């Protein structure tokens, strides 16, 4: 059987045209978005990468090797999001260099940007460890340390074997410990500048695990709340109902519905794979 030249030309033209028409459905414009990062379920305004979720969150949040991370624009560090609760708009950050009862070390500083959509919850108890006795936190005129119930927290920390990591002996004097109680409300823009405060390390407790006397049971981490007042219309819900992910265009940060095959639209994913 032989093909005429005209049939062969038509067949070749079909091969050239159809792949080009299929390109938009297989090449993602904003990259692929996923609904999970490791064990954490991702919902708007969070996203797995750039172009996913809300742009205000995408600047600080990313999924790296199955670990959801928050980075601060000030460059003070990258922190792991260990839990995320959409019903209360809260999350918990963990810092591998932050001290706990079992492990204490020089932990550097912590800062949360003013422009960040996150704010620090009042439940957090920040503890400064291994501070110089000449530190400004001990200035009686400043009143920056909680000397009431905070003293029990300091005694709990200094009873831990982990204090040897910052050059202290267990059950030593707590005169170098401060439960930090700054005069300004804790929120976005909050920071701990340990070199300026002349302290070796810090810790944050957001719960005592039902036993204030046992620092091994305390819940360590930084408890944050996030602003969830985004996209007041039904565009995002319409997108999610169609199986898509709410995201944004990389050019002007306008709303985009990103389908599971990578195509992004301005409406929804019905009929778009």
UniProtKB/TrEMBL annotation:
Residues covered by the Wall-associated receptor kinase C-terminal domain: 231-261
Residue ranges occupied by any Wall-associated receptor kinase galacturonan-binding domain in the UniProt entry: 33-94
InterPro entries hit by this protein: WAK_assoc_C (IPR032872), WAK_GUB (IPR025287)
Secretion signal span: 1-22
Membrane topology: Single-pass membrane protein
A GO MF term: protein serine/threonine kinase activity
Database matches in Pfam families: GUB_WAK_bind (PF13947), WAK_assoc (PF14380)
EC number: 2.7.11.1
Superkingdom of source: Eukaryota
Keyword set, alphabetical order: Glycoprotein, Signal
Major enzyme class: transferase
Location within or outside the cell: Membrane
Reactions catalysed: L-threonyl-[protein] + ATP = O-phospho-L-threonyl-[protein] + ADP + H(+); L-seryl-[protein] + ATP = O-phospho-L-seryl-[protein] + ADP + H(+)
One GO cellular component, as annotated: membrane
Keyword flag Methyltransferase: no
Name of protein: non-specific serine/threonine protein kinase
The organism of origin for this protein: Anisodus tanguticus
Lineage: Eukaryota, Viridiplantae, Streptophyta, Embryophyta, Tracheophyta
